[in-house]
Amino acid sequence: MNDKSIVRIKENSMINYVDAAIASFIALIATFFVTFLVKKLAVKFNIVDFPNQRKIHKKVTPQAGGVAIFIGFALGLLYLQPEHEHLMEITLGACTIILIGLLDDRFDIRPIIKLSGQIIAATFLISSGLIIERITLPFIGLFDLGPLSVLITILWVVGITNAINLIDGLDGLATGVSTIALTTMLVMAIIDTQVFAAYLAIVLIGANLGFLYHNFYPAKIYMGDTGSNFLGYMIAVISMLGLFKNVAILGFVIPIFILAVPIFDTLFAIIRRAKTNHGIMQADNKHIHYQLIRVGFSHRQSVIIIYFFSAMFGLLAIVFARASMYISLLVTFIAFILVHILAEFAGLVAGGKRPLVDMILRAIGKKKVRPKANEEE
């Protein structure tokens, strides 16, 4: 093996932008072409998504496109050949996630089995020492989590994995939202010289963009749980490698800002299902993206609106990480307004009232639409 071809991740090492760009392009091209093969294999082995009352699509569609994303990502990393102390365990966790996702896409396995697979993947990370050990809190400073580190790490990995999975409800939505989050993480990794996190992010961005051509509305293939769980897992990993290293005041808020849309959509789903006595793990069609369609936006418009919200939260995260206390307060206020708008779309504000949403809809010429009686939260 030629030593010059190896990207050695060391303290104070610099990002090789040319190699990173080439690796991202390799991931993009590989994913683009491999997706054609995955689509054929998915149909052959009956790994398809059937329409039902809860879903938007009207025809049987191949899924498990996440396999193509994984292959493209792997080929991009193969070009870079990065060395890192956690790489082996990250890879083992990713393979576990892919396997569980494939099984679920083909056989619709029970939630407890999926959860077990995600915990196993998190355990690989913990065994390598990749743990959320401390966070920075206001008025306290750097807070060591101590024995809670393992639990917090598992909750973070499992939570983000499922958050990306839950937002995968419209064509191109999870692919685009995760790409925006990864782009924000890439910028922050570059700023903080978190080399390995930057390499993982830029290669995964390339793989996502290669898949998005096939996945944007009208989708020719879905990523399935194979893809959404893999993306969620890798986003959790990259955030642990880079974002939780930030020691700024309220540093723990930064990853929450970046992933605000999937995190709050998941939180709103839990609250909604608890209020209506539905099982927390029971799927429904009342996520924010479905509510956007109900108020009159098209499929494409709904996806682009959520892209916008994701990008806004990402921008706020970058500003927040380098802002003074006064600017941080302003950023927090703007983020609160954005979350409030999302909560109104989810029907969780004041018994389903939507004052800000209705004002925005009137401003853009949309009629005010309320859920039907059988759709009330």
Describe the model.
With 377 residues, the chain is mostly helical. It has one domain. It is 64% helix and 4% strand. The chain contains 14 helices and six strands. It has helices at residues 17-44, 66-80, 87-107, 111-127, 148-166, 173-191, 195-215, 224-241, 253-258, 260-275, 288-294, 299-322, 325-345, 355-363, and strands at residues 7-8, 48-49, 61-62, 82-83, 134-137, 141-144. Strands 1-4 form a two-stranded parallel sheet. The longest helix is centred in the first third of the chain and has 28 residues, at 17-44. The radius of gyration is 20 Å and the shape is globular. 45% of the residues are buried. Residues 1-8 and 371-377 have low confidence and may be disordered.
How does the major sheet shape up? 2 strands, parallel
Radius of gyration: 20 Å
- How many β-strands, per DSSP? 6
**What is the arithmetic mean of pLDDT?**
85
Q: How much beta, percentage-wise?
A: under 5%
Low-pLDDT windows of residues: 1-8, 371-377
The spatial strand order of the largest sheet comes to 1-4
The H-and-E topology, N to C, reads as EHEEHEHHEEHHHHHHHHHH
Judged by helices, strands and strand pairing, the structural class is mainly alpha
User: What is the overall silhouette?
Assistant: globular
In DSSP terms (H or I, runs of 4 or more residues), the helix count works out at 14
Instruction: Tell me the number of structural domains.
Output: 1
The helix content is 55-70%
Oligomer: single chain
The separation of the N and C termini measures 59 Å
SSE topology sketch:
Layout: E1 7-8, H1 17-44, E2 48-49, E3 61-62, H2 66-80, E4 82-83, H3 87-107, H4 111-127, E5 134-137, E6 141-144, H5 148-166, H6 173-191, H7 195-215, H8 224-241, H9 253-258, H10 260-275, H11 288-294, H12 299-322, H13 325-345, H14 355-363
Parallel strand pairs: 1-4
Antiparallel strand pairs: 2-3, 5-6
Helix pairs in contact: 1-2, 1-7, 2-7, 2-8, 3-4, 3-8, 4-5, 5-8, 5-10, 6-7, 6-8, 6-12, 7-8, 11-12, 12-13
